[in-house]
């Protein structure tokens, strides 16, 4: 089956080569992956994709950098979970990298099968999240050297608990786990509890990297984060009726940029470009859908119908707008740890499934979407368990919804033919509904 | 009140009806549920067994890709007899099950208690506040006040087994599973699964004194009377209880699980059985770590959380029991047959595809063997195999000192002396055929297994595929059918491959879809078959790594006749994989050998 890569195909044929040498030459495999990603990074910089909006090019560049920086200098990296605030690390010059980022790029290089097999061989259950399986495989094979610190939080899923605990064992690296109550930032005790844990995490990072945290720099990063999210909030209604000129790869890159690199000047610039680009965007009269979870960008038959297409587009995802609620933040950058705690507690992926369903409904309403897709990524019990509930809630508010089963990074768990038929038929249904209205 | 916890209360009339049906019964699913606190309000807590006959409703309301216990809970708790539910935010599946129950159910009381992942002072304070909130909500709903004496009476003393026993760890076990393990392994079972309470402390004397004061209040003092929390008594209780509950033996979702090492190797523990479920990830991880402890006999079993999936576990549990008991069952049988026969032994392997029999003389020489298709009636095939092998050897049934059966149908063969699992027999038979082999890869029609041996043919470790057909002979048969070929042609054609084709999926259904797509793209058939062989090899190599498999490898079972798979396995494992012309007789030969050994030792 042919696939489309993340922002353009990286290197075909790498996957088999990598799978063959995971066990006997892990260092060579790491270098091969690093070369592939650096080539792609250079391409994004020198020959940017002109069909997409400038803000999408910004996102591609940021996302690629997150992985290339990590692979080029893993000693200065921290392996984190995607919802954990990064500002402490960024303020210290430490590169955050996550399972989703590494696995996404490994999949783009067609190399996920070998790492999934490696992880399963070590006893990782087959029904585990594939993003985390690839990360585990990268670690146990020795392709990724040990970082100096592991940091994760309990939002949104159990994998952030399990994988990181196991990786700490494999690598002999300290792991700091941030326990996030099943609550909101209305609960002051919960904010204080999470903020204190983030302070402890910052101290652990200081010890691990031998660098003092500059509080002023941290406040600057948190202020950047808040301005970035405010910009995203302003840009949301600008999506309505406008042509996104994006593809599924862009959506994943945007999610990485607004989580891992939230707080940087680059991500703030990207958000501002988004506001500008969307305000000037061409009108769009095709079908617009809201997408739940990370889309399977590597499956051509799924990605193609919405790739810079005039007929159908993804207009918003909950992976981009999970941190963008209706209210202004209660804590400003002068209280950086409380501000980060508030963001984490109020993330729509924390707490009951109705919170995420509400966010999807809100996104659909504000963007004027025709319908929604809840993508059930293999091994994601958080999404699987909530999928039908989210569908019922979306449909009760007038948004036809498709629950689509697949995998966000492992081709082995995707029935592409069946997925494609279901997705295409859903788009046809929305189109017919739109024409009839 | 904490905003994370939500309760639903119904009218007084409903409550009265609920009480008439048996009082307050709270259904729960996690060992961190405060059953003693609820007992203080006169509620009986009942662990939701969730041993249901189908997951249809759960699949419809939630999704098939949840663990069997989570889906079973949805099915069970939506039944009319359940009026009160307290769940814990213990894992992703239970949180989502709560969401579905809250949306779909019609309960008198339903509450989700948030459990911290850590156990420090800050977490204890947080957890205490949440317990207090639950107490307030339940008091308000039930109209009852807290009775510390009733709460203390609900405590069960933390006493661990010290006599010979096995410990069942991992995901929730139904009563039927506990019984099955006990019967299969032959030892009493200590339940250490995720739903089994494991408090490490007993209530302090101050609380008992508070209970006595509470009794006095019943005679006139109003401290414990009326609706609500009963003020200071509940506070004193919660001050202690929050820490006691939080600091019990941790389950795998807690951040620090180092204490769980104490679950391995306690006094009297003969072995550990790990119970896992698909889409429950926690205990697969712990099992992977625990397998590195070489001294601990351990086996992994997988169910879907209901008693319907227990049948397939029998072989695994009995084989594990055989390794724990050491002196095997055959020896006992030999004792009872001493002095009979002329020193010949017979082994019969009743498998899903073929029924094989072997006769050995007292010096361990093979006298005769037969292989017959099993067909529709396993018992009849076994009877014919016995008759034919006796005829071939020129012997009568009375000449047999011992007859040992093995295989799926081992317990249904008439007139046998004893039955031993195919794992133990296969290992012994493989050692006979190729003494240098240390890892046996057996891929049969129904299942695939990898057995790691010592230099005497004893089982060091083994692993079997779960009930899915991935990587088995059945997988190959279905793929051959998809390509409209006989299995023989399929194997032969696969050797003519020219280009690498990757079949990503191991799932039979997904792989079939991939094959259909490749056919649509005019991919040459030999290349597709080669891709399938590689796919089976990858799956099998994963199993081999799980038991620390090492060269030399011997492959047995029907799939050993597929040269493409053997070659692919050689490539993936990085070492030659041998086959043997008599490999199909492994089980029968092993059964006969074990019989012979027991006669010689007995």
UniProtKB/TrEMBL annotation, chain A:
Top-rank lineage group of the source organism: Bacteria
Molecular function, one GO term: hydro-lyase activity
Gene3D superfamilies per UniProt: 3.40.50.11890, 3.40.50.11900
InterPro entries: FldB/FldC_alpha/beta
Pfam families: HGD-D (PF06050)
Family under the similarity heading: Belongs to the FldB/FldC dehydratase alpha/beta subunit family.
Name used for this protein in its record: 2-hydroxyacyl-CoA dehydratase
Organism: Olsenella porci
From TrEMBL, chain B:
Transmembrane segments: none
Gene3D superfamilies according to UniProt: 3.30.420.40, 3.40.50.11890, 3.40.50.11900
Keyword Iron: yes
Pfam families: BcrAD_BadFG, HGD-D
Key words, A-Z: Iron, Iron-sulfur, Metal-binding
High-level lineage: Bacteria, Bacillati, Actinomycetota, Coriobacteriia, Coriobacteriales
Gene Ontology terms for molecular function: iron-sulfur cluster binding; metal ion binding
Name of the protein in its database record: 2-hydroxyglutaryl-CoA dehydratase
Annotated ranges, domain ATPase BadF/BadG/BcrA/BcrD type: 347-595
SUPFAM superfamilies per the UniProt record, alphabetical: Actin-like ATPase domain
InterPro entries: ATPase_BadF, ATPase_NBD, CoA_E_activase_dom, Dehydratase_Activator_Redct, FldB/FldC_alpha/beta
Cofactor: [4Fe-4S] cluster
Annotated organism of origin: Olsenella porci
């Amino acid at each position: 089956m042919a696939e489309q890569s993340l922002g353009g195909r990286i290197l075909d044929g790498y996957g088999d080569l990598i799978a063959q040498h995971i066990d006997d030459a892990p260092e060579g495999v790491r270098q091969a992956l690093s070369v592939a990603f650096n080539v792609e990074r250079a391409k994004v910089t020198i020959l940017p994709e002109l069909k997409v909006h400038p803000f999408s090019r910004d996102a591609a560049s940021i996302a690629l950098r997150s992985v290339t920086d990590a692979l080029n200098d893993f000693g200065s990296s921290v392996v984190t979970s995607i919802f954990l605030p990064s500002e402490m690390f960024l303020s210290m010059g430490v590169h955050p990298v996550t399972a989703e980022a590494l696995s996404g790029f490994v999949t783009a290089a067609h190399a996920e099968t070998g790492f999934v097999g490696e992880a399963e061989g070590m006893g990782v259950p087959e029904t585990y999240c594939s993003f985390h399986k690839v990360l585990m495989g990268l670690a146990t094979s020795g392709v990724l050297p040990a970082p100096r610190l592991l940091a994760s939080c309990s939002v949104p899923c159990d994998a952030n608990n399990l994988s990181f605990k196991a990786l700490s064992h494999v690598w002999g690296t300290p792991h700091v786990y941030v326990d996030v109550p099943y609550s909101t930032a209305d609960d002051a005790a919960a904010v204080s509890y999470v903020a204190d844990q983030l302070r402890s995490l910052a101290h652990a990072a200081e010890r691990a990297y031998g660098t003092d945290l500059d509080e002023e720099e941290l406040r600057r990063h948190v202020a950047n984060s808040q301005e970035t999210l405010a910009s995203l909030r302003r840009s949301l209604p600008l999506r309505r009726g406008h042509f996104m000129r994006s593809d599924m790869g862009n959506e994943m890159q945007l999610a990485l940029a607004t989580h891992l690199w939230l707080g940087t000047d680059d991500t703030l610039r990207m958000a501002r470009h988004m506001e500008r680009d969307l305000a000037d965007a061409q009108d769009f009269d095709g079908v617009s859908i809201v997408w739940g979870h990370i889309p399977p960008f590597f499956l051509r038959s799924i990605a193609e119908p919405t790739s810079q297409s005039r007929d159908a587009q993804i207009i918003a995802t909950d992976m981009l707008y999970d941190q963008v609620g209706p209210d202004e933040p209660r804590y400003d950058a002068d209280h950086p740890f409380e501000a980060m705690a508030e963001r984490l507690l109020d993330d729509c992926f924390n707490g009951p499934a109705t919170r995420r369903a509400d966010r999807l409904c809100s996104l659909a309403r504000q963007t004027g979407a025709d319908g929604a897709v809840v993508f059930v990524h293999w091994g994601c019990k958080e999404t699987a368990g909530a999928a039908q509930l989210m569908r019922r809630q979306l449909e009760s508010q007038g948004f036809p919804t498709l629950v689509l089963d697949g995998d966000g990074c492992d081709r082995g768990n995707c029935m592409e033919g069946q997925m494609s038929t279901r997705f295409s038929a859903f788009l046809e249904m929305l189109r017919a509904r739109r024409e009839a209205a | 009140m904490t905003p994370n916890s939500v309760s639903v209360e119904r009218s007084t009339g409903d409550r009265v009806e609920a009480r008439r049906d048996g009082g307050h019964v709270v259904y729960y699913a996690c060992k961190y549920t405060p059953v003693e606190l609820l007992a203080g309000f006169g509620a009986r807590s009942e662990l939701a067994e969730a041993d249901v006959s189908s997951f249809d409703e759960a699949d419809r309301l939630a999704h098939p890709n949840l663990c069997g216990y989570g889906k079973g809970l949805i099915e069970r708790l939506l039944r009319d007899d359940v009026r009160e539910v307290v769940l814990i935010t213990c894992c992703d599946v239970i949180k989502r099950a709560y969401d579905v129950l809250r949306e779909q159910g019609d309960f008198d009381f339903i509450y989700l208690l948030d459990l911290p992942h850590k156990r420090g002072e800050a977490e204890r304070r947080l957890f205490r506040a949440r317990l207090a909130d639950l107490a307030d909500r339940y008091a308000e709903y039930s109209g009852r006040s807290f009775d510390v004496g009733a709460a203390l009476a609900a405590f069960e003393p933390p006493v661990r087994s010290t006599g010979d026993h096995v410990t069942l760890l991992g995901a929730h076990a139904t009563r039927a599973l506990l019984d099955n393990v006990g019967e299969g392994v032959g030892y009493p079972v200590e339940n250490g699964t995720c739903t089994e309470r494991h408090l490490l402390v007993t209530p302090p004397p101050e609380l008992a004194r508070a209970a006595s004061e509470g009794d006095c209040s019943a005679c006139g003092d109003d401290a414990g009377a009326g609706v609500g929390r009963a003020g200071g008594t509940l506070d004193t209780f919660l001050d202690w209880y929050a820490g006691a509950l939080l600091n019990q033996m941790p389950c795998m979702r807690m951040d620090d699980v180092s204490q769980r090492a104490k679950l391995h190797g306690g006094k009297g523990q003969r072995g550990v059985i790990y119970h896992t479920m698909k889409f429950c990830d926690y205990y697969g991880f712990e099992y992977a770590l625990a397998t590195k402890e070489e001294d601990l006999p351990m086996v992994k079993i997988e169910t879907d959380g209901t008693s319907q999936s227990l049948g397939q576990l029998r072989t695994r549990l009995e084989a594990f029991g055989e390794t724990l008991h050491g002196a095997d069952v055959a020896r006992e049988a030999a004792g009872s047959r001493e002095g009979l026969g002329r020193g010949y032994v017979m082994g019969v392997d009743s498998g899903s595809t073929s029924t094989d029999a072997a006769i050995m003389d007292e010096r361990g020489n093979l006298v005769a063997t037969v292989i017959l298709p099993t067909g529709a009636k396993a018992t009849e095939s076994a009877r014919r195999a016995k008759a034919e092998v006796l005829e071939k050897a020129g012997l009568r049934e009375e000449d047999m000192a011992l007859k040992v059966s093995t295989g799926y149908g081992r317990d249904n063969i008439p007139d046998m002396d004893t039955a031993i699992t195919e794992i133990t027999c296969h290992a012994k038979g493989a050692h006979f055929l190729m003494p240098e082999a240390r890892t046996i890869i057996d891929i049969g029609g129904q299942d695939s297994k990898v057995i790691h041996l010592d230099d005497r043919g004893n089982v060091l470790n083994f692993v079997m595929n779960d009930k899915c057909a991935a990587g088995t002979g059945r997988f190959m048969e279905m793929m051959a059918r998809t390509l409209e070929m006989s299995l023989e042609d399929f194997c032969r054609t696969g050797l003519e491959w020219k280009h690498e084709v990757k079949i990503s999926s191991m799932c039979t259904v997904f792989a079939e879809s991939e094959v259909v797509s490749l056919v649509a793209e005019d991919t040459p058939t030999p290349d597709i078959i080669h891709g399938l062989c590689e796919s089976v090899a990858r799956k099998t190599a994963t199993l081999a790594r799980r038991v620390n498999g090492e060269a030399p490898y011997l492959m047995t079972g029907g799939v050993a006749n597929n040269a493409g798979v053997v070659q692919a396995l050689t490539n993936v494992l990085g070492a030659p994989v041998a086959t043997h012309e008599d490999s199909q007789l492994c089980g029968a030969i092993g059964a006969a050998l074990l019989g012979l050994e027991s006669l010689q030792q007995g």
